[in-house]
């Protein structure tokens, strides 16, 4: 074993193989789910827009991230393949994982801004988020992610797979102060921004529904159904963003803070590697569960009764007193 191949010469145990199997199954499920989203988004007419493009970009990054764990790290650990454990290969795979993670959280931020603009500036939305701007957003996200991925190695923070810890561990030369600001604090700031933007989006949506669709006495069944539909949209949005936010915050806390109190191999593995993989797997499931466009594909029968008695408002455009418009179709697709 040497610096060029820290994991070489290591004899895999049964526990190592169990950990590798857990990595493969968890990441493999995530690959399937996120690949389904990536390949399906472009086929859905309602998602052939900026929102759908950003969603496909984000899911694609998560697919690559999880594929690295399922088809590189898991086999290297399970089969004890020394060639895959070399320093140069391992650190490049670790760097690619960081790039994909950054792309994922920046894409989430862009998607949140996209929804925010669609509600606060509905008439300007198509101009603000046209195809050209969307391509630039993706280019900026890639540029930022690549930049930070080279910033850490410059400070000695190469990520290499540790056989002893079953995780991507930072090299002993890593500048911990740089790591704290470049990874942990930066991710916290981005996730906090996502939370604030989503909170403002929900506030606008709720106020719009309360102001324009008050529940009045003697309302017909159709009106009651529409009211129920709007409330369900609000609830689904809150559930989606809360679960996603909770998952990302929990992963950050367990990876960087809680794991320090549990240096034992299995607890440390669950709090770091498994948590990191799981958050991206869960993210895909959340998108499928809470986005109606994907539910139409997965549960076509259930969709026929999705909003019983709710009528069809998919193409309805609401004119507000101030002269703004809210497209109910776009609202439902994005939430």
From TrEMBL:
The chain crosses the membrane at residues 20-42, 63-81, 137-161, 181-203, 237-257, 269-290. It comes from Mesorhabditis spiculigera. It comes from the Eukaryota. Keywords: Membrane, Transmembrane, Transmembrane helix. Residues 24-291 form the 7TM GPCR serpentine receptor class x (Srx) domain. This is 7TM GPCR serpentine receptor class x (Srx) domain-containing protein. InterPro entries: 7TM_GPCR_serpentine_rcpt_Srx.
């Amino acid at each position: 074993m040497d610096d060029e191949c820290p994991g070489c010469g290591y004899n895999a145990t049964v526990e190592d193989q169990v950990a590798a199997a857990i990595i493969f199954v968890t990441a493999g499920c995530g690959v399937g789910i996120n690949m389904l989203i990536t390949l399906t988004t472009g086929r859905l007419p309602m998602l052939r827009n900026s929102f759908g493009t950003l969603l496909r970009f984000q899911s694609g990054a998560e697919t690559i991230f999880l594929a690295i764990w399922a088809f590189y790290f898991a086999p290297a650990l399970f089969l004890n393949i020394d060639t895959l454990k070399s320093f140069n290969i391992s650190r490049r795979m670790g760097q690619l994982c960081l790039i994909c993670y950054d792309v994922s959280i920046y894409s989430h931020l862009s998607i949140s801004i996209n929804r925010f603009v669609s509600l606060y500036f509905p008439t300007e939305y198509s101009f603000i988020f046209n195809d050209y701007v969307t391509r630039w957003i993706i280019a900026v996200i890639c540029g930022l992610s690549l930049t930070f991925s080279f910033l850490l190695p410059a400070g000695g923070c190469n990520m290499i797979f540790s056989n002893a810890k079953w995780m991507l561990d930072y090299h002993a030369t890593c500048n911990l102060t740089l790591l704290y600001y470049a990874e942990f604090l930066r991710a916290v700031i981005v996730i906090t921004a996502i939370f604030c933007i989503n909170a403002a989006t929900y506030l606008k949506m709720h106020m719009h529904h309360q102001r324009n669709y008050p529940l009045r006495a003697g309302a017909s069944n159709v009106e009651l159904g529409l009211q129920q539909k709007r409330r369900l949209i609000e609830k689904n949005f809150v559930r989606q963003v809360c679960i996603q936010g909770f998952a990302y915050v929990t992963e950050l806390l367990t990876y960087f803070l809680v794991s320090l109190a549990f240096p034992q191999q299995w607890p440390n593995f669950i709090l770091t590697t498994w948590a990191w993989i799981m958050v991206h797997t869960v993210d895909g499931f959340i998108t499928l569960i809470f986005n109606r466009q994907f539910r139409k594909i997965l549960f076509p029968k259930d969709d026929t009764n999705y909003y019983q008695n709710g009528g069809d408002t998919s193409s309805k455009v609401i004119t507000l007193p101030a002269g703004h418009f809210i497209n109910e179709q776009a609202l439902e697709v994005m939430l």
